Amino acid sequence: MKILKNYDLTKLNTFGVPARAKYFVEIVSEQELEGLFGLPEFLENKKMILGGGSNVLFTKDFDGIVILNKLKGTEILSEDSESVTIRSMSGEIWHELVLFAVNRGYWGIENLSSIPGSVGAAPVQNIGAYGADLKDVLLHIEAFDVNSGEKKIFTNDNYKKGYRESIFKNEFKEKYFISAVALRLSKVAKKNLKYRSLSEYVEKNKIDVGNPLEISKAVTEIRKEKLPDPKVISNAGSFFKNIIINQSKLDKMLKIYPNMPHFKDEFGIKIPSGWLIEQCGPADGTSWKGKRVGNAGVYENHALVLVNHGGATGQEIANLAEQIISSVYQKFGFKLVPEVNFI
Ligand code: EPU
Fold this sequence. Notes:
The chain has 343 residues and is of the alpha+beta class. The protein has nine helices and 20 strands. Strand 8 (128-129) and strand 9 (132-133) form a beta hairpin. It binds uridine-diphosphate-2(N-acetylglucosaminyl) butyric acid. Residues 129-130, 195, 197, 226-227, 237-238, 241-242, 261, 272, 274-275, 278, 289, 302-304, 339 line the site of uridine-diphosphate-2(N-acetylglucosaminyl) butyric acid.
């Protein structure tokens, strides 16, 4: 383990914006992590744990220590005829874990295919897509208290999960280093096709829905059609959360905007922020969707995704986000909340 100074983070965030860390360290084992907790550079500085860098916007340099999580490994903890428990180290790439599961015929995370980022970041923002949520398969989270060095297990009931929320984004932010995640998956077919765009795609393309690998491939294809690949256009997926409202608010909104899309799920009634953003725009009366402002922009196929067309700074992207928030607020009275973490 080597602590580096003034480290360039441009390649470690999928927005590809320039930023430097005062200190930087890469962690490849739990032993290294425990050693890190005693070092002065760690004890005396602000800390930031970085996984895939796919949910972060650096608006300035980080005046503290960045810990790059490279803890690797996935194992089967136990299994019976119906289910299997797998444990994956937090520095693994999320989609690699999905492939581990679907290639063995395990059900539960195939709808979460191709979500960028690491295994450790998944419970922090409680990833969800195409009608599935991590919390539905999560068994436990192993995490080190960065102050005491003690290891704690968080079960599914005590990490305060919500829509793109968890205890690790709030009161325990930067207080715990997630080292591993355990999931319980099903060996018995459990397809989840309640999300409309997925069920339509599956039907149209005659996908074999008895095989999680085929569903995983379908999800990856749908994502490719709508979402930009960060390797081609720098971005961090959905930039904002969707808006959640109750029935009486929905009734009022539908009187004014009869076409407003809305989806009910366990978190409430969701209004797609992508739609709201598409209906708004800068002062020239055009839509934000596909709009470019300097080197930053709104993706042409999905208005919820902000992109770096090349050479944008984090501040430029943050300014565009600010303009979007204010125009959506003026038109609809909804305050968009970023899903991406601002640094
Ligand atoms: N829509 C528009 N215009 C747009 C984009 C979307 O009108 O430019 C409307 C359409 O009505 C569409 C609806 O929004 O039917 C929903 O769009 P989509 O299926 O793409 O889902 P989303 O609500 O925009 C959420 C997640 C995504 C996840 C998808 C699929 C959030 C913040 N985002 O997006 O997650 O992949 O559902 O389940 O909840 C991410 O978190 O980075 C992410 C990509």
